[in-house]
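Support reply, case 0932

Customer input (verbatim):
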Amino acid sequence: MQLENNTYHIQGIPVEQICKEFGTPLYVYDAQVIEKQILKLQEAFKGVRLKLKYACKALTNISILKLIRKANCDIDTVSLEEIEIALKAGFLPFQITFTPNSVPFSEIVLAVEKGVFVNIDNLQILEEFGAKYGNKARCSIRINPHVEAGGNEKIKTGHAESKFGISIEQQNEILEIYNKYNLDVMALHVHTGSDFSDVEVFMQVAEIMFELALKFKTIKIMDFGSGFKVAYKDGDKTTNITILGEKITAATKIFAQKYGSEPQIWFEPGKFIVSDAGILFAEVNVLKHSPASVFAGINTGLNHLIRPMMYDAYHEIVNVSNPEGEKSEFSVVGYICETDTFAWNRKLNQVRKGDILALLNAGAYGFSMSSQYNSRPRPAEIMIHHGKAHLIRKRETLEDILHNQIEIDV
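Our regenerated output:
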């Protein structure tokens, strides 16, 4: 979103025009930003045999997935439903990775039958997989390296008490099953958490994974997950992917010399690709003055963007209707019957009833984590592509909320 001549635009389209045409609340995604982020990663890791696997749980709109596929990304899924959406978006089965957690073995079987590459994250499932398939089906093993990293306790997934992955301390059990069934373990996978910025922590995990890989005879892929930190406000520390690319390239070359072949390197970025591309636009319903604050109540809430309430996430807020207004403090709150505060006493250009506020960095885990809480419908989604606004999801209605309910006489 750019400010030109006192008007905010996305790819040349005035923001208030978009909001007037499609209504608010409204999710808007800039396709150019998504393509730019993918190119950044491809450039940073050009020294290795790179494959990007978009972590689609961040944003699963089928039109967004088609855009990402055309940008030469494969896809990482975490449910059978995400697999089906990926297939409908044009991904071929071999381009899809299935990385579930705490699912029944029947889901693993269905994924294998569809030709999807399965990532196994517990010993019980690995044993069942070996007994059923032996070396007749390829798989990956997710490792928990016991390294804590991430921006919030709820998004740290590589520490010793995490439910994700098989503990690095259980590598002997892994190898026993691997040898017992002559498994075709093509990849080792790790994901230590989201929003980590320390390259050295990432390399610490990579060292653990490369050392473990030497104990397998069949490794062709090293999957390092993602979790790259993006900036939510000026001055935020981010993951230096250029430096990380250089270090990963060097470490991969050293491993290749020891192993006898160079593995393909996979990353599974989700937030890095779509976060900055998405903005949630909302209209100011009411201004409420209290001794402690001036509340700007907007026509959205935690039902549409739960990250500030769930993760204490910071989202920059811009008053697109009054870009030159005098700065003053406002607490931006939602319309849900819970405490859904997006910002406490945030300095904004003077906010008036009817103004449009933009909540930035809302592309990842925004709509995908939305709900119908308080029986309020989810917003529409728009993608700006080649200078044109495209409706890619209709706004829900009361009929949608009631759709699966069955009314009985009582």
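We compared this against your earlier run and they match. Two observations from our side: The domain at 31-273 is CATH 3.20.20.10 (TIM Barrel). The chain has two domains: 2-23+278-362+364-402, 31-273. Please reopen the case if you see a mismatch on your end.
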